[in-house]
Structures are given as structure tokens and as C-alpha cells.
Design a protein that fits this description.
The protein has 275 residues and is of the alpha/beta class. Helices cover 45% and strands 13% of the residues. The protein has 2 domains: 212 residues, 3-Layer(aba) Sandwich (Rossmann fold), CATH 3.40.50.720; 38 residues, no CATH class. Strands 3-2-1-4-5-6-7 form a 7-stranded parallel sheet, with helices on both faces.
């Protein structure tokens, strides 16, 4: 079988231009590094200026301050990519915020509005402005970060679960419109990746302010994966994004790639019946 030379040499995105929102740390940062290693020119769009600038410098990319709730900020990120390299091939709508615990009976509607502004409106802004550039460029890949909380009840707060399921619907809907232009729109739904955001959420939920990523990963690995003892890593999600961004996924659109160690597909505690 013939192997594409770009793939063979780890250059699956050679010459492509990518924007990653929320790219300064966590899953976004891991993806930015992997994209750059595979030949992409990466624009990191975030509100964490110091981290974002440092990472962009280290991978030969560009950084722009971008609050995804502000449509003009997202539009400016797309303009930067076009000004810098004359094209936009990949848009990874990854920026997001965690939910907050609490009963539906006491849901704070102002907090809900703020969360939806980031997780949902931010994604809408990304797809809207990326698609305009990609139509002119005759194709591209748009990727959106959803969550296992969109697939199963009880894995996230009401607000967070609502926002992440909305992203799935948005991606499928826009894939229908944009496919004729050669633009693919897909989602990635991670489960239990001990990012800074998830660790902070665990600290709040369990009331353990000194809890670290290793302890959170251990909890998830024991109860949140069929691959017992193994939790998801940021690099696992980055590899999924690399696949969807690359030409290897050229016939995949309106798809939700779940990165969960099988957790949302099977009942892991039933494994005793096979022993």
C-alpha cells in the first residue's frame, strides 16, 4: 500500500493554516503543538495572553487576544490568519468554560447566559467566520469541542450538558449547509480528561482544594473508562483533532468522534461476566 509522504514524515497538515480558540492551555495547547509538529501554521486565540504568546512563539505561530463571546474578536482571529498566510484551512472551536453544580430548581439564569455565551455563541461565531473564509478557499475543516456530558445525563451540570449538546446539533446542521462548499464540520467529545478546567471542577465538587491532575486522573481511570486504570489525556484529544483536521478524514463530516475509553458506550462494571 502506498503511504502518503506527508503522513510518513509527520506532516499531515503541511502548509495548512489553523485557528485554535482556547489554545493557550489544556487540550487547545496540546493540539496547537501537535498541529505545528505536523506542518500547520497555527493561530492561538485565547484570553490568556501570557500563556498564549509564549506557546505561539515556541511553535512559530501567532497569538491573538480573543474572547469568543465577542463576535468581532473571532472575526479578527480569522482576519489574522488570512493576513498572515492568505488562507484558513482549519478552525478548532475549542474554547469553553465548565458548568456549576446545583439543582435545576435553583438555576442562576445569569450564570447560564454567561456559560452559553462562551460555549454556544462562541462556537457559532467560529463557524460563521471560518466558513466565510473557507468558502473563498474552496474547502476546510471545522472542529468543535463537545463532551461526553452531551451523550449521557449526570456527567455534567445542567448548564454544561445543555451547552455541549447544543454544539452537536449546531455542527450537524452547519455540516448540511457547508458540505457543498467542501467544508467538513465535526465534533470531538472527550470524557474525563484532567485538564486545568476539569481539575478545578473536581475541587469545587468534592471540596478538596489541594486535589491535583494525577488524583483526578486516577478517579476517572478507575470508574470512567473501560480501559481500567487509564483515563483520557489531552494528547488523545489532540490526536483526534489532528485526524479530523487532516485529509485522512476527507470523507467524514457531521460526525461526533467520542474520545472516552468506551465509557459512554458500555457498562464497565459488568466486565465480571467475562471472567
Amino acid at each position: 500500500m502506498e503511504v502518503n509522504s506527508n503522513v510518513q514524515h509527520g506532516q499531515r497538515l503541511k502548509g495548512k493554516v489553523a485557528i485554535i480558540t482556547g489554545g493557550a492551555r489544556g487540550i487547545g495547547a496540546a493540539t496547537a503543538k501537535l498541529f505545528a509538529q505536523n506542518g500547520a501554521h497555527v493561530v492561538i486565540a485565547d484570553i490568556l495572553d501570557e500563556l498564549g504568546l509564549e506557546l505561539a512563539d515556541s511553535i512559530g505561530g501567532r497569538y491573538i487576544h480573543c474572547n469568543v463571546t465577542q463576535e468581532s474578536d473571532v472575526e479578527s482571529a480569522v482576519t489574522l490568519a488570512l493576513t498572515w498566510k492568505g488562507q484558513l484551512n482549519i478552525m478548532f472551536n475549542n474554547a469553553g468554560v465548565a458548568g456549576y453544580k446545583g439543582s435545576i430548581m435553583n438555576l442562576d439564569m445569569d450564570k447560564l447566559k454567561d456559560l452559553l455565551a462562551v460555549n454556544v455563541s462562541g462556537t457559532v461565531h467560529g463557524i460563521k467566520h471560518a466558513s466565510r473564509a473557507m468558502i473563498k478557499g474552496k474547502g476546510g475543516s471545522i472542529i468543535c469541542t463537545s463532551s461526553s456530558a452531551a451523550l449521557m445525563g449526570g456527567l455534567g451540570s445542567h448548564a454544561y450538558s445543555l451547552s455541549k449538546e447544543a454544539i452537536l446539533g449546531l455542527a450537524r446542521s452547519t455540516a448540511c449547509e457547508l458540505g457543498v462548499h467542501g467544508i467538513r464540520v465535526n465534533c470531538i467529545s472527550p470524557h474525563g480528561v484532567p485538564t486545568e478546567m476539569l481539575v478545578s471542577a473536581y475541587r469545587n465538587i468534592l471540596g478538596k482544594i489541594d486535589m491535583g491532575a494525577e488524583e483526578v486522573g486516577q478517579i476517572i481511570g478507575e470508574s470512567g473508562s473501560l480501559l481500567r486504570g487509564r483515563c483520557g489525556r489531552m494528547e488523545d484529544v489532540a490526536q483526534a483533532a489532528l485526524f479530523l483536521a487532516s485529509d485522512d478524514a476527507g470523507f467524514i463530516t457531521a460526525h461526533n468522534l467520542v474520545v472516552d475509553g468506551g465509557f459512554t458506550s458500555a457498562y464497565s462494571t459488568m466486565s465480571f461476566i467475562y471472567q
